[in-house]
Structure formats: structure tokens, C-alpha cells
Structure to design on (774 residues):
């Protein structure tokens, strides 16, 4: 029997309409806008000034704290400005604007397709290379990868799980790289296993990607320590906690770190970036972005330089259709609606999804009929109807904490499933933030 | 330039709606309605139509003219209540009886509490019990055209359960009573003595399977109720088969299936978690058996469900789902 996680989950229609579109290299852009906040944690500090010449792969910003990261120039050219610019939500974030001139790469970066299998580096060297290449988690959370590869001293990693579930509907970028670059992904996995000092690796892939499963399984013949695990199609299987539960049957304790189960989870895209960083000296300067939507005439999977404006990508993809009502960065379940199409891509962007009004319309809200479908769907075993009711009442933070609102992973299963059309997650998300703020403000024991 | 919508995730929604769920319940009740109409003819048909119409109309009038709020009869919940109420009455009951029941069910049990989702008690059962105590004769006299199914002739006008109760009261033993002659297959496929909805176990079970396949309900509550009734009545029957009816007889009579499948699983008035649902089901099973064996009414399912409805808020408070990452006890 195929594996899956044990609590909750839903089955949204998967709509993988861009799955057969091979990865295309996106045409050269004129200007790149590189965000300083491309990772979880403190924004990076720019180290270039207006007028500086930069090459592809050159460090242009340094980490500003332990959880932070390096940022590299995705293009070659001249720094035009170092100034705040609006991100997808319209919030001002420091950006470095670079006028593109040619495509000159930093020395030492191997841009060939030659596969480099040998891993001559020590764990410390690997972690350092990953850090210097600015690799972050490409599954969405953009957690700096080098931090995850060096777990706290008192915790012992036992295995690495590569996340190839891509459980969000529509998204196909991970599917494509698993079909087109399975060797590189597995070498990346082997590199991370060496850094972690573990001998067991898994790749979790959902059953709706048979071509990716076939290609990864074939490539894994050379990697006896890595097992490709076919998982049932079920959302949110790509959630870190859900994937660990699905693959090794262990549940991360509430409030605990995933490492407490002995598992370290990395996205397959991250694994590819690690391969390029360690074996090819290539920093994270581009990524694969799915451009999809039923209203788009052609579906694409583009390899895009970081810092490309979303509007530019949509323009090249054929323009925004008349009936487009919502553009999402990411998938329909957890992606963010884009308010500012001129925002530039960041490392963790995986998709631009265009939905019509009919596809994204919210249902009119009707009374809760206490069907408890939200509770059955919640992958964290919470009771969304109750959390929503307490949130609505206002000021009931103690009860919300007791009902473990802080465990919510904001996957959206509750809102998705509610037959009464109640947007359960909206209010839960707000009260989760409030409760976590209260919890953090308490003196630590 | 397009005007773009910006809203928090998720940006997609499942297909189910309150209306689609209620529609599924109506579809699941169709076999039972068909059997009822085929067996009892026009009177059963009139009863169902009158029940549905009265429930929908009562809700409409209250929402429109009393509450002056939005009218939500299109969600079909009132139609389900009407249907269930009609199936809980003798098929030959006069149409005005179901209308009175409908007014009580919707007007008192549902709308007074605030409408859909707010009521504590199952509206259809409140309607039925109101009629049972107000019109005991009409509510316990059952159609006996008897020609096809002469089994219950000996106790003209009573249900198998009523007949047994009456017989036992008069000092008879079960072996003297012909009720035991009801063969299993008769009870399972067609059993003439009973309310409109309890004529055919197979029709109800078909509806049950449909609801399970459509994931409208989970099997927890019905299965717990049926198992409890079977086990408890089994113990009594083994102890004294002369005084207590056998477990199979208990499973397929007295509207137990109708209650367990369609009434006890009512979302609004049943617990939210599996743990709560199991306690709820065991409670209904126990009360049903005790009312049947020791109570003054021959039939206990309605009372059992209504009594257990009271415990739902408490069960919701104390029975929590298993949280992710919780250590298995």
C-alpha cells in the first residue's frame, strides 16, 4: 500500500496542466531587481554601490545575522540603484537594481552540463559552500539551507527526506526537474547526507507524477542509500511534518523541531541548488517557475533569473488574459495573491498561477452546520470550527492557546472543505499570530 | 490592465456545499420513500409531500416575516426534516398530522434556537415525539390492509414491537407470540408493520451505503448504535429468551435503522469527534434497548436520540481529536 500521512488532508483537483511543458530558458532581461529579503530571517546587507560593475554569480549582499543569507547577482551589468522597492504584496523591501550588460559569469563557476559525481568535500566544507552560494529552501519557506544542514548539537539527524511531493495543485516545476535532472538532484541529496552524517535518504513523490517517479527511480539505481517512495496523492503531503509522518511514520511533537524525529527535509529544487553550489560553484541565481492557468493559451516551465519582474514573465508567456482575476505566487492552496505584478521574483518563487474569477470566487458564507469536515480535514488534528468561533468572539486567547492554534500550518484544508463556505483560515491565521506573540512575550523558564 | 483580486489563501474551494449535502441525504432517503409509497400507496405519498411542503413553508414564513432575515430554504435542510418526519409517521396518518409535526419541528425545534446549525435537538424527532404524546392513537395505529403481509394480523393495528410489548404485558411469553415468526428475510427486505420509513431495512441500508460513498456521513454513529443494541439485547435475550426479544428482531424493527442512519447522524445535533460519536452511539443504543425492554413505550429510538442530543455540547467539549504529534496512549 502506498504511504501517506495519518491525520486529515484533502483531495483538491490537481490541475497539473503544465506538466508536459519542458523547462525553457527564459530570454535575457534588461533590468534585474534583486530583493534583499529572499530568505527567512534578517534581510541581507548590500555590499555594492551604485555604478559598480557586477558579474553573474558575484556576491552583492551579505547575511545580516545567523538566520540570513548571501545574495548574488543573477546578471552581469551595472548597479543602477540600491533602494526600497515594492514586493508582491506592495511592501517596500531593499532591492539592488542592476542594468543588464551581456552575460559575463564569475570565474570558477562551471556552466557546463557535465555531471560531477565525486564528493571530495568534508561536511564543514559542504555547509560552507552551501552558505556561500546563498541556497535557501525552495519549497516555499525559504529557510536558509546551511542552517538546516547543521542541526543543534543535542539533536541527531538519522535520515534525509527529499520533498518531491509537489502536492499543491497546478505546480509542476519540481515534477519537471525530477524528470529532466534526476541525477543532479540525487547527487545533491548525497551531498546533504554527507553533510548531515546520515546514511539513509528518501525521495517522497506523489503518485500523480509517474514520469518523475520513473526517472528518479531509474537514476536512484546508482544511489543505494536513497530510496524513492511513492506516496498517495493527498494535500498537504508536502508539509514538512506531514511528509516525515508519511515516509518514516514519526510525528514531530507539538512545538518541537522536525529534527526531533531524526529527519531533515529538503525540497528537490533545493537539492538541485545544493548540487550546483557544491559541485559547480554556481550560486543560487535562477530557479524554475511554472507559469500556468486554465485561461493561459500556453503553459510554461521557465528557468528564470532571480530578480525578473513577474509582469515581464507574464508578458513573455503571452500576456495576462482579459478574464484573469487573480494572479498567485505559488499554488492555489497556500500561494499568495499578487498585488503588485511589477514585483521581481525571489529564490523561493515556484509558480505564477493565473485564475479566472469563476475559479477563485469565494462562496457566500452560510451558517456552520457542525459537519466537522474541517476537523476531519485538518492535518494537525485541530478543530478549525472551534478556533474560528473563538477567534470571532474576540479576546479568547487563553482558550485558543489551549486548543493549540499555534500548531496550525495554514494549509487551508479547513477553508477548502467547509460546505458552508466559511473562510475558517482567515481568522485562525490572525489569532495564531496574536497567540504566538503572547507566547513569545512570556519570560522563558 | 486587469483589476486583480487580492485575498488570503486558500484560493480554491471544494465542491461540497450545504445544499449538495442535503440533496445527497434526500437522494439517500429515496429508496425508503419509494418502498413506503409502493407499500402504502397514495397516503404515504401525500404524507411525504405534505411534510416537505409544510417544513419548507414554515421556515420560509418565519425567516421572511418573523425574523425578517435572509431566506435560506434553498439549502434544503427543511426539506430533509420534512422528509424524515413523514417517514417517521404511520403511512396512513392524515396529512394534517404531519403538518402539525412540521410546524413544531421547524418552528419550535429549529427556528427558536436560531435556525440551521443552532438547534440542540433533532427537529424531525421533536416533531415526531410531539405528535406521539399529543396524538397517541393516530401515531400508533398502523396501516393494516394486511392482504399481502398477514404476519401482523394477530395484533391488528400494532407494530411488531408494540405487539410484543402488549403481549408481554398480558402475561404471554415470547414463544406464544407470533412476532418471532417474522423471518429474518421479511424483516430485512420488507416488513409491513411500521412507520413509513421502517418498512424495509434494505432500502435504508442502500441509503446508508450511498451516504458513506458520498462521504456525507461516517459510519461511526450508526455502527456504534447497531452494535450496542445487538450486544445489549443479545445479553438479555440469552439470559431470558422468553421475556426478551432477540437481537436481530431489535435491529430491524422500530425504526432503529432509520434513526441510526438518518437521525442520529444529523450534523448539527451529533458530536464532532470520533470519540464523542462513539459515546453518543453507545448511549443511544443503551437507552433504546432499555426503553424497549422496560419502558412504557414499545419504541425507544426517538427518545434515545433526543436524550443523547442533550449531551452533545458536553461531548464536544471533552472529546478532542487526536492532535498531530500527540503520543499514542
Amino acid at each position: 500500500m502506498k504511504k501517506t500521512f495519518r491525520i486529515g488532508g484533502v483531495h483538491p483537483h490537481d490541475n497539473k496542466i503544465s506538466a508536459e511543458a519542458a523547462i525553457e530558458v527564459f530570454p535575457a532581461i534588461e533590468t534585474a531587481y534583486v530583493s534583499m529579503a529572499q530568505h527567512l530571517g534578517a534581510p541581507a546587507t548590500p555590499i555594492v554601490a551604485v555604478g559598480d560593475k557586477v558579474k553573474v554569480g558575484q556576491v552583492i549582499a551579505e547575511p545580516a545575522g545567523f538566520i540570513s543569507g548571501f545574495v548574488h547577482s543573477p546578471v552581469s551589468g551595472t548597479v543602477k540603484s540600491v533602494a526600497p522597492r515594492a514586493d508582491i504584496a506592495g511592501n517596500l523591501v531593499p532591492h539592488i537594481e542592476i542594468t543588464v550588460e551581456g552575460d559575463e559569469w564569475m570565474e570558477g563557476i562551471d556552466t557546463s552540463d557535465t555531471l560531477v559525481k565525486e564528493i571530495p568535500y568534508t561536511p564543514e566544507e559542504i555547509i560552507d559552500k552551501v552558505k556561500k552560494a546563498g541556497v535557501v529552501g525552495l519549497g516555499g519557506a525559504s529557510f536558509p539551507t546551511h542552517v538546516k544542514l547543521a542541526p543543534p548539537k543535542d539533536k541527531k539527524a538519522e535520515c534525509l527526506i527529499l520533498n518531491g511531493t509537489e502536492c499543491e495543485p497546478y505546480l509542476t516545476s519540481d515534477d519537471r526537474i525530477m524528470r529532466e535532472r534526476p541525477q543532479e538532484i540525487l547527487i545533491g541529496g548525497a551531498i546533504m547526507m554527507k553533510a548531515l552524517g546520515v546514511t539513509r535518504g528518501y525521495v517522497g513523490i506523489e503518485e500523480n507524477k509517474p514520469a518523475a517517479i520513473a526517472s528518479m527511480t531509474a537514476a536512484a539505481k546508482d544511489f543505494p542509500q536513497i530510496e524513492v517512495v511513492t506516496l498517495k496523492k493527498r494535500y498537504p503531503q508536502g508539509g514538512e511534518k506531514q511528509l516525515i509522518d508519511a515516509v518514516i511514520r514519526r510525528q514531530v511533537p507539538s512545538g518541537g523541531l522536525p529534527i526531533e524525529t531524526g529527519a531533515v527535509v529538503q525540497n528537490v529544487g533545493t537539492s538541485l541548488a545544493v548540487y550546483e553550489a557544491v559541485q559547480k560553484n554556481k550560486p543560487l541565481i535562477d530557479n524554475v517557475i511554472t507559469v500556468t492557468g486554465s485561461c493561459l493559451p500556453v503553459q510554461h516551465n521557465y528557468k528564470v533569473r532571480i530578480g525578473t519582474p513577474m509582469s515581464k514573465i507574464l508578458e513573455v508567456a503571452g500576456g495576462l488574459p482579459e478574464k484573469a482575476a487573480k494572479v498567485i505566487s505559488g499554488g492555489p492552496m497556500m500561494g499568495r495573491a499578487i498585488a503588485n505584478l511589477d514585483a521581481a521574483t525571489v529564490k523561493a518563487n515556484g509558480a505564477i498561477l493565473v485564475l479566472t474569477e469563476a475559479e477563485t470566487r469565494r462562496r457566500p458564507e452560510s451558517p456552520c452546520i457542525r459537519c466537522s469536515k474541517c476537523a476531519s480535514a485538518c492535518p494537525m488534528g485541530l478543530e478549525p470550527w472551534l478556533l474560528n468561533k473563538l477567534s470571532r468572539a474576540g479576546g479568547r486567547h487563553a482558550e485558543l492557546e489551549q486548543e493549540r492554534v499555534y500548531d496550525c500550518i495554514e494549509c487551508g484544508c479547513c477553508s477548502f472543505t467547509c460546505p458552508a463556505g466559511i473562510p475558517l483560515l482567515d481568522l485562525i491565521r490572525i489569532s495564531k499570530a496574536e497567540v504566538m506573540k503572547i507566547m513569545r512575550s512570556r519570560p522563558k523558564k | 490592465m486587469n483589476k486583480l483580486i487580492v485575498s488570503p489563501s486558500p484560493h480554491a474551494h471544494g465542491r461540497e456545499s450545504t445544499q449538495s449535502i442535503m440533496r445527497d441525504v434526500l437522494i439517500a432517503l429515496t429508496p425508503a420513500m419509494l418502498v413506503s409509497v409502493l407499500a402504502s400507496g397514495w397516503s404515504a405519498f401525500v404524507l411525504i409531500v405534505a411534510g416537505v411542503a409544510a417544513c419548507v413553508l414554515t421556515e420560509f414564513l418565519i425567516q421572511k416575516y418573523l425574523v425578517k432575515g435572509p431566506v435560506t430554504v434553498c439549502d434544503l435542510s427543511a426539506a430533509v426534516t420534512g422528509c424524515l418526519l413523514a417517514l417517521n409517521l404511520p403511512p396512513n396518518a392524515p396529512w394534517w398530522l404531519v403538518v402539525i409535526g412540521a410546524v413544531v419541528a421547524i418552528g419550535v425545534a429549529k427556528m427558536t434556537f436560531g435556525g440551521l446549525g443552532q438547534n440542540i435537538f433533532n427537529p424531525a424527532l421533536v416533531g415526531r415525539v410531539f405528535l406521539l404524546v399529543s396524538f397517541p392513537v393516530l401515531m400508533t395505529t398502523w396501516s393494516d390492509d394486511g392482504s399481502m403481509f398477514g404476519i401482523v394480523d394477530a395484533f391488528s393495528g400494532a407494530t411488531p414491537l408494540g405487539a410484543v410489548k402488549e403481549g408481554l404485558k398480558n402475561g404471554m411469553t415470547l414463544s406464544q407470540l407470533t412476532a418471532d415468526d417474522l423471518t429474518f428475510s421479511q424483516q430485512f427486505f420488507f416488513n409491513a408493520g411500521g412507520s413509513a420509513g421502517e418498512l424495509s431495512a434494505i432500502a435504508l441500508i442502500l441509503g446508508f451505503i450511498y451516504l458513506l460513498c458520498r462521504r456525507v456521513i461516517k459510519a461511526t454513529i450508526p455502527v456504534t448504535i447497531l452494535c450496542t443494541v445487538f450486544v445489549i439485547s443479545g445479553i438479555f435475550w440469552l439470559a431470558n429468551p422468553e421475556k426478551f426479544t432477540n437481537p436481530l428482531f431489535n435491529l430491524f424493527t422500530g425504526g432503529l435503522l432509520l434513526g441510526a442512519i438518518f437521525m442520529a447522524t444529523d450534523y448539527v445535533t451529533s458530536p464532532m469527534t470520533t470519540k464523542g460519536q462513539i459515546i453518543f452511539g453507545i448511549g443511544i443504543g443503551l437507552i433504546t434497548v432499555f426503553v424497549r425492554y422496560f419502558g412504557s413505550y414499545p419504541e425507544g429510538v426517538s427518545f434515545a436520540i433526543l436524550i443523547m442530543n442533550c449531551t452533545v455540547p458536553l461531548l464536544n467539549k471533552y472529546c478532542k481529536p487526536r492532535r498531530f504529534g500527540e503520543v499514542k496512549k
